[in-house]
Amino acid sequence: MRGFTRRLVAVAAAASVVVTAAPTPAQAHRNDSYAKVAYFTQWGIYGRDFQLADVQNSGAAARLTHLNYAFGPVTADGVCASADPWADWQTPFSAENSVDGVADVAGQPISGNLHQIAELKAANPKLKALISLGGWSGSAYFSDAVLTDASRKRLVSSCLDLWIKGNLPGLPEGVAGGIIDGIDLDWEWPASSGNAGNVVRPEDKQNFTLLLAEFRAQLDRLSRSTKKKYLLTAFVPAAPAKIEAGFEVKKIFKYLDFATVQGYDFHGTWEPVTNQQSALRVPAGAPDDPDFSVENTINAWLAGGAPKRKLVLGVPYYGQGWTGVSGGGNGLFKPAAGPAPGVFAAGTEDFKTLKKLPAQGFTVHRDLRNGHAWLFDGTTFWTYDDPAVLLQKALYIRAKGLGGAMMWSLDGDDERASLTKAISAGLR
């Protein structure tokens, strides 16, 4: 046991060293056998002031294989749309906020995040960009949209027309063609509850498979004319009950290039007791049995028949936090008064903010055996992943034979892209 602990301590220490190195883009891409998928949020360009130029300048882009642009909603009419055309293709970016360092000018064919994604791909030729459809607050109408063969065909056709063919409203035909390389389905969740107000039906389980089949058929048909391969991926849940309710596991991977698996939000401030949100394994003393963990989630997908190499593990770039924690000790599994204050929302905080807390009186605690970390100052508790934890998870991905890692979301990382560099370093 002591030998095991010493090895993991060495791993944790190595992680803090590894991520300070700055490999060249060529080095960062020398092994693309693992998917390194990261979400860029459409709304991050506003209050968070996080731009695609930051993804490039931090070194994150050179270490990714896929960029998921989040989100494109499915409307009540059962078609794909833009949630924010201003962000997607209208807003002009200054030279400072442009990937290529050149300001947008009046009259250019397309602006906005889509133009910046095109610039990001030009600077990183191996990078693929996908549009993520749905998300937590954008999944209300999936069930209606996939109810019949005709409605599925209509939905898929509209998604390809808007996002893949690039036919944007009010702009020349095909102006954004070639920017987006595939579809990422973020239906949260087929046949089980998600955000309040979502339409949910038992037959969502079968209809999700049929939706994938329709996407694959239409994407392949388009490929025959463009001579380009289009990707199809999906974000899938951690909870075994949601897996069972909503997914024909043995069928869906026939159509998917890979699935990104929720590896976070196992616990949070909707609960009155502090806990881990993203541990590799269930920690000793955990109050819930059965409980959530990365290992339990991955094993549930594998038991259902999912191929290992098509499972991409999701990791968080944020933490869940409680305050008013009582009971002493290291703060774990203790009663709390409620969510800790956060910059953008109570109970959650970006890694880039949490990394500064040890200098403000917080102690970093690690469960090296079970792969999680937390911060505690005697009153406030944050469960989070730092570079050391992410290197452990990268080693788990390798040992388990999984397909790679997915990161939610890039705007939570620090200015040096420390988390992305840790994942990249571990998946070489």
TrEMBL record:
- Record SMART domains: Glyco_18
Record keywords: Kinase included?
Answer: no
Write down the InterPro entries for this protein, in alphabetical order: Chitinase_II/V-like_cat, Chitinase_insertion_sf, GH, Glyco_hydro18_cat, Glyco_hydro_18_chit_AS, Glycosyl_Hydrlase_18
EC number(s) on file? 3.2.1.14
Q: Which GO terms of the molecular function aspect are on file? A: hydrolase activity
Its UniProt entry gives the catalysed reaction(s) as: Random endo-hydrolysis of N-acetyl-beta-D-glucosaminide (1->4)-beta-linkages in chitin and chitodextrins
**Record keywords:** Carbohydrate metabolism, Chitin degradation, Glycosidase, Hydrolase, Polysaccharide degradation, Signal
Q: Where is the signal peptide?
A: 1-21
**CDD domains the UniProt entry points to:** GH18_chitinase
The keyword Signal is assigned to this record: yes
Q: Where is the GH18 domain?
A: 34-428
- Family stated for the protein in its record: Belongs to the glycosyl hydrolase 18 family.
The name under which this protein is listed is chitinase
Q: Which organism does this record belong to?
A: Actinoplanes sandaracinus
